[in-house]
Design a protein that fits this description.
- It is built from eight helices and no strands.
- Helix 6 runs antiparallel to helix 7.
- The protein is rod-shaped.
- It has a domain of 160 residues: Tetratricopeptide repeat domain (Serine Threonine Protein Phosphatase 5, Tetratricopeptide repeat).
- The chain is an all-alpha fold.
- It is 85% helix and 0% strand.
Length: 283
């Protein structure tokens, strides 16, 4: 191996040491630079943290200020709302109570009106019955008077007809004296005995009047309807009127209306025409 001179070795050593020193210096410089950079970044981060802390403190101060202003107003508003709700509930309850009181008064007035109408109807019914009773009694008296006058003129050869008349007078007398059961027996016997007799239709009519006076309106309806089968009877309009009154007495206003209208239609010249109109207006 070739050996270099000592001088060359010494130069190489110096160069090596210089290179090493340069490398060390460069490393230290890099480390110093990195440290400075890290220190700068830390300072920046610390400064940013400080700024954020300041901002947070400012926001907290603002929040506290807002809360200090809004919270009392909110609390007051809630208290006002609760108080208003309580007052509203009280007013609602008061209104409901007044409505209930008014409804009760209306119901009381309706009941009084219904009672008044019922009382008026009963009074009117009694008046009608009394009026019909007077009319019936008057007609029965007139018939009795006429028949008794006719008896003196009856010839001996018409004894059967005379007996019929006598029985008819007896039955009509029972009716006049309000002995309705005896009158019913008498008129029923006459109708069965001879339905073709000139007084048969009258007997049938007074039979209906007896049941009407006893307030047996359903049976009276049956008897008055039989009168209408005597086409030539002078009691047709009388029976038609009584049919309307019977149906009204049992509360069948629709049928009563029909019967009164029949009287107006079939018997326009009847003495009961005006009364039928009056009864129709009352239904």
């Amino acid at each position: 191996m070739k050996r270099y001179p000592i001088f060359i070795s010494w130069i190489i050593s110096i160069l090596f040491i210089g290179m090493v020193s340069s490398a060390v210096a460069a490393t230290q410089q890099r480390r110093t630079s990195q440290s400075d950079q890290n220190s700068s970044e830390a300072s920046n981060l610390k400064r940013q943290l400080g700024q954020q802390a300041t901002r947070i403190a400012e926001l907290e101060a603002q929040l506290n200020q807002v809360v200090g202003i809004v919270l009392p107003d909110f609390k007051m508003g809630m208290e006002t709302l609760v108080k208003s709700k309580s007052q509203s509930d009280s007013v609602t309850i008061m209104i409901i109570n007044r409505i209930n009181i008014i409804q009760n008064k209306i119901k009381l007035l309706e009941d009084k009106a219904a009672y008044s109408d019922s009382t008026n109807f009963e009074v009117l019914t009694q008046l009608v019955m009394m009026e019909n009773k007077i009319t019936s009694m008057t007609r029965s008296f007139n018939e009795l008077y006429a028949l008794r006058s006719d008896l003196s003129d009856v010839e001996s050869k018409r004894i059967s007809s005379e007996d019929y008349r006598r029985k008819y007078i007896d039955a009509l007398s029972f009716y006049k004296n309000s002995e309705f059961q005896n009158a019913i027996e008498g008129f029923s016997e006459l109708v069965i005995m001879d339905s073709k007799h000139m007084l048969a239709d009258n007997s049938q009519y007074w039979l209906g009047e007896c049941y009407y006076s006893l307030k047996n309106y359903k049976r009276a309806i049956l008897e008055f309807e039989k009168v209408l089968k005597f086409s030539s009877s002078d009691k047709l309009d009388d029976a038609q009127l009584k049919l309307g009154l019977c149906y009204r007495s049992i509360g069948n206003k629709e049928r009563a209306t029909t019967e009164f209208q029949k009287l107006l239609e079939y018997y326009p010249n009847s003495e009961y025409y005006t009364k039928a109109q009056q009864y129709l207006r009352q239904l």
